[in-house]
Write a structure and sequence with these properties.
The protein has helices at about 1-5, 15-25, 45-60, 75-80, 115-135, 150-155, 160-165, 190-205, 235-240, 245-255, 275-290; strands at about 10, 65-70, 90, 105-115, 140-145, 170-175, 180-185, 225-230, 260, 265-275. The chain is an alpha+beta fold and about 290 residues long. It has two domains: about 10-25 and about 220-290, 2-Layer Sandwich (Ribosomal Protein S8, Chain: A, domain 1), CATH 3.30.1370.10; about 65-205, TATA-Binding Protein (2-Layer Sandwich). A hairpin with a 4-residue loop joins strand 9 and strand 10 (about 265-275). Helix 7 packs antiparallel against helix 8 and helix 10 packs across helix 11. The radius of gyration is 21 Å and the shape is elongated.
């Protein structure tokens, strides 16, 4: 209905702050993006069939070795470059983001899967391409189950110290509010590949079950198109626009959204997939909250 389309939701930064805090404090981040409709309970036979189908899908999708990474939207095209990689690469769908900020930019999950040598060769190729694109040695982020962190670190930090010494890479681990931790690996493509091999060996040696899904939101809840008007405080409008519109362009590229600022009304129109729009709002709020005093 035309009338309904004209009444877009309008949010203020204060309201959005409360929403974001609720999201960050949630023990199950996928609930933030979930639809209100609940599926009817499956019958026992239906559940059994679904479980078998899911098992077959996992077997056919993932190889014997897999690593899960976090990548920014700006670097995502490298994962789809024309240069062939040895391992299969699976990336998050439109509107689906890693729910926690671990850098200044929103991140998506990607899984590299195949034989061990194929995964390591793919890590090396991606590291080379990222280094060529960005011009520096940025850390690679690998997601591992919370239970793995202790094994990687070892008693008194011996395991991770040995890995640093043997691979030549800089390695450290940070916790997230979720059930996964992030292993940061930084160095040349050769040292990053050696460290990735160490990570794979640890995961396989301990037979750790990984959460290899790139989906963090309820299926279908984040992909439909939406739009909202975000009220920006008058003294922050220039910061959101940036010099020559650079900030607006960055938000668009990093969140796959369309943004248009009405400076007179101090209103920012955000259009795109629901998950992308929600991430853009959080991204903008983060920039406004950490700006220099």
């Amino acid at each position: 209905m035309p009338g309904a389309m004209a009444r877009r939701p309008i949010l203020s930064i204060g309201i959005c702050s409360l929403v974001a805090l609720s999201f960050l404090n949630s023990t199950n981040p996928s609930n933030f993006f979930a639809t209100s409709t609940k599926a009817a309970p499956a019958t026992e036979s239906a559940s059994s069939t679904a479980a078998e189908a899911s098992s077959k899908q996992r077997t056919s999708t993932f190889g014997p070795a897999s690593l899960k990474m976090l990548v920014s939207a700006a670097d995502l095209p490298i994962f789809f470059s024309k240069q062939k990689t040895a391992a299969k690469i699976l990336t998050a769908r439109r509107g689906d983001w890693f729910p926690f900020f671990v850098s200044r930019k929103p991140l998506k999950a990607a899984v590299l899967t195949g034989e061990v040598d194929e995964v390591c060769a793919t890590v090396k190729k991606l590291s080379e391409l990222l280094e060529e694109k960005n011009g520096n040695l940025q850390p690679h982020r690998f997601l591992v189950p919370r239970a793995v962190a202790g094994l990687l670190i070892g008693s008194g930090g011996t395991n991770i110290k040995d890995a640093r010494s043997e691979t030549g890479a800089t390695i450290w681990i940070e916790q997230t509010p979720g059930s996964e931790d992030i292993v940061f690996i930084q160095g040349s493509s050769q040292t990053v590949t050696a460290a990735a091999k160490w990570l794979l060996d640890t995961l396989q040696g301990e037979r750790i079950s990984q959460q290899l899904s790139t989906r963090y939101h309820t299926s279908g809840s984040s992909s439909h198109q939406t739009e909202l008007d975000l009220h920006i405080p008058k003294d922050k409008v220039g910061l959101v626009i940036g010099k020559g519109g650079t900030s607006l362009k960055r938000y668009e590229q990093d969140c796959f959204c369309q943004l248009k600022m009405d400076s007179e009304k101090c209103t920012l129109n955000v259009k795109g997939s629901l998950g992308d729009v929600q991430m853009a709002v959080r991204y903008i709020m983060q920039d406004l909250s950490i700006e220099p005093k």
